[in-house]
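Exercise: predict the fold of this chain.
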Amino acid sequence: MPRRDDIHKILVLGSGPIVIGQAAEFDYSGVQACKVLLEEGYEVVLVNSNPATIMTDPEFATATYVEPLLPGPVAQVIAKERPDALLPTLGGQTALNLARALYEDGTLERYGVQLIGADYEAIGRAEDRELFRRTMEEAGLRMPASGIAHAVDEALAFAEENGYPVIVRPAYTLGGQGGGVAHDADELRAVAARGLEASPIGQILIDQSVIGWGEFELEVMRDRNDNCVIICSIENVDPMGVHTGDSVTVAPQQTLPDRLYQKLRDQAFKVIRAVGVETGGSNVQFAVNPRTEEILVIEMNPRVSRSSALASKATGFPIAKIAARLAVGYALDEIDNDITRRTPAAFEPTIDYVVVKWPRFAFEKFQGVDAGLTTHMKSVGEAMAIGRTFGQAFLKAMRSRELDAAPKLDGTLEELLTRLEQPSADRYDVLLEALRRGAAIEELHARTGIDPWFLRELHAVATDPDAVFAGERSFKAVDTCAAEFEAETPYYYSGWERRRASEVDRGRNRSVVILGSGPNRIGQGIEFDYCCVHAAMTVRESGRDAVMVNCNPETVSTDYDTSDRLYFEPLTLEDVLGVVEVEQPEGVIVQFGGQTPLKLAAGLQAAGVPLLGTSVDAIDRAEDRGRFGALLAELGYQAPPYATAQSPQEALRVAPQVGFPLLVRPSYVLGGRAMEIVYSEEGLAAYFERVRPQGEIYLDRFLENAIEVDVDALCDGEQTWIGGIMQHVEEAGIHSGDSACALPPHSLGAEELEEIRRQVDGIARGLGVVGLINIQFAVAEGRVYVIEANPRASRTVPFVSKAIGVPLAKMACRIMLGERIADLGLPADPMGGGHVSVKEAVMPFNRFSGTDALLGPEMRSTGEVMGIAADFPTAFAKAQAAAGSALPSSGTVFLSVTDEDKAAAVGIALLLHDLGFTIVATRGTAQALRPYGVPVETLNKIGEGSPHVVDRIEAGDVDLVINTPTGSGARSDGWEIRRAAIAHGVPCITTLAGGLAAARAIRAARMSGEAEVRSLQEIHGMAVAETA
């Protein structure tokens, strides 16, 4: 079937902010789709709220709307742009659910927009648990014994009849959100209530447990001619009971005999046909009983899934790209394989190597959380490795994890074996240690349920890891066809063989190696991948070959056509030097991948590798507290009082000289890791008991009630250009990655801004920066204090780039390649566009029951969103809505603030009262509000018994919580309030500045009504992306 010519403009929905269960994989898929549709000559309208992704760069669509992914704003875009079709299958569950809502509320019919990729009925058959079960029964396929519940009592009744344990799966959710395993009635009450809350249709599936069975996924594609192909089989090393996103997985599957695999393949085709996905990719999950070989269908996603990115990178078959072409009419046999260029996409990929995916967790960020793994996904990122054997791939994946701390492997062998009975983030570290201590494979199989084949392989890895890497490192090509056809592939991995036999076609062109950022984790996310992609694009535009080294399968940087050559390798010094030996590059870029490549800079320089951009010495001068302090003194700039210490004992000795409260952290950290505010020597001693830092310790006086400011700038060593000055909405003490921020600043004076500009220029030139620099300031009582400087790409680079219409990473790369700022044609006033941009962080607290939502100096957000409007309140309201914390227009607000905040809280309460809100408060806050004429209902503190605010939240009678604990011992107050608010989806604000911004935003929405939607191309007066 030829390309469809009856449609001309296609609306693509992104997936929104990076959240657990829906991460950068969908950014990768969306970018592929947008590129393909533009190549095919279609106009592309993109809606996505995430500024951190390369997908929302204006060059990837005809019109790019950074707007909340909600029916209202998207309906406005549809009314304005009048697309012919909507493609919802590449933006994860968010896009799928939004497309369903737009269909049901009549928006698509009203504007004549048709769904492509998957129609409404197919989405319903796959996502509605009851419809899916019925569809599978009609197709003759078996599922676990299950029941549908719309209330907790119905779930309990099923379990009483069928027995425990049971698995809860909410409808229309992502990453197992709201689901879990229940072993008894008490657990089921909690999990079922959480699942019903998470499901947009209030429906959960209760599955009879198949915990311990083998879990397998097949990535399937189908076209309108009913051609079906399997792109990749994936096997979870963990048995059923651990979400596939949290399990170590391997491709292709390793333990099934071919006859059983062929049964899975046939059943996967039956599933996609029965559901009715005609033009695109789907993910089908199975459980297989290892003893009886019984096969059960678990679920099916009628869209590109998390595993699609892994399968694409594992095989070299670009699933999202092919899915987009299928959606506009092509058949599989009409689409060429991009790598072989000799076979059509109808040929199933075949691979002659092994791929291992390893999840990355962040439990250390969330004190008190249950770190056990179940069907409720908790990982924040993943690494992937390719090897000639399972052992090679497994150990390469292990060293790609970028762990903040080594797993604890002490205790007796029996204690280790007991730990293995509960899946956890360190399960395989513990397993390898148990094997090293002589644990029997039979015993380990009984304790873990892991297939004996994997245990035998892991025994070899544990007892003789060097044997896995015997021989010589050789770089092999990923060619999708196991070398059965000649292929021109730019995609390589290292394996160890008897004799070196590299398949890299280096060519004669100069090359630049770009080091990626490794697995996404809190503090180092997709923002750095954005910068790496821009670097690759810029290097290629300069006429050089761009060479990417990274180990993250989720991202655009590891798409095989982003760079001229891709090496899927761990980001360790040894592995990077292996690539450098082959490439002999003109230089290596370490500035764009965050802290991971920066840690390698000194080792690369010592090995004689040329580094482009800011020197290693300048990086060290910014990171080393003593050297940076000397630079500030030389420039005459002021920093808060500080000290450094080499041990906890020394830190306790010098802390009184710095003064309390103080900010304590280890050196060279990422995302504020282990950073805390302490208010006394006792608090500092308690910190060292918990954290036990290694190496140098930094102590800084904490400036309470200061305004924090972030600046992103470019420097060519002689001239500085400031791209953006961002004012944090929250007060000082909240990590910049977790704070909302506004560009341009909304309350700083002209003199303060001028002083900030002067100090940015002095620091950048003083360090000798060549490329990007991020500097953080605090403004207190009219004085500007320098907090820190990072001479590299920062998390805010993508946000600033979209706010001002200048791609900072691209400009920085041009500087690193030899151009000067004067050559770049940069605007004199990039922040003078007449609009306000607000960045808001997105928190994962709903994934981690038992943790506190209180913000602090250690970063805990997984992603971010952006609001753009003509004024700050409207932009802030848009950002809140995009972050999933839409501010209420009416209802009840609960206020509970610390004593020092009570006076300022009066203004917030008066504003909300004038807007018609009912105010409820704890006794102390209520007493502060009443003298100012604010009607307020008093509630007990939780310890005083009912009626208290948790009762009201659980009853659905509170619409907004403002709770601001500060000061010694009080930052933990209100934990139960915040936990209840998160559990019930009530917006919860923990700073006074955030509360005031929310009140102003509610008032602005009340006065101006529906906020205008404008594309980035309109806002910045840009030319639209070209179609083919």
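Check your answer against the key: Residues 967-973 have pLDDT under 50 and may be disordered.
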